[in-house]
Amino acid sequence: MRVRDFRDDDVGGCLAVFDSNVPRYFTVPERDGFIGFLTSLPGPYLVLEEPPGTIVACGGIAIDAASGRADLCWGMVRGELHGSGLGRRLTEARLSRALSDPRVRFVALNTSQLTTGFYERFGFVTTEVIPDGYAPGLDRCEMRMVVAAPER
Question: What CATH number has the domain bearing residue 13?
Fold first, then answer.
């Protein structure tokens, strides 16, 4: 398994990962938002290849140095590979990249109620739940992990 930075020619592979998660984890209307995200990345976006050349997972990081916030954004694993450890590997790589910036004081993400348990294993806690925030039956859960106390 290889973790590397996203390249422009990875759009199709990342869309295939997205599509494999519709409708359980993402909705069809979110696809356009994901395409927009990929064409204007706010920070590093990582892909996992296995075998080389086949994208099986992808996810990004956006850092706001002024607030000390790092966001994990648009993380996903091919639907048929859930539970294989790829999500853990992707999340570890993204957290490692985010926490390598000494300005980061906390990491945030939003996800559905279907994956909050996964992120809790990394130390994230749910700070807000918006019922049906993504779609009927798909709540938006805001999560946060504090990694350092604010400087005084």
Answer: 3.40.630.30
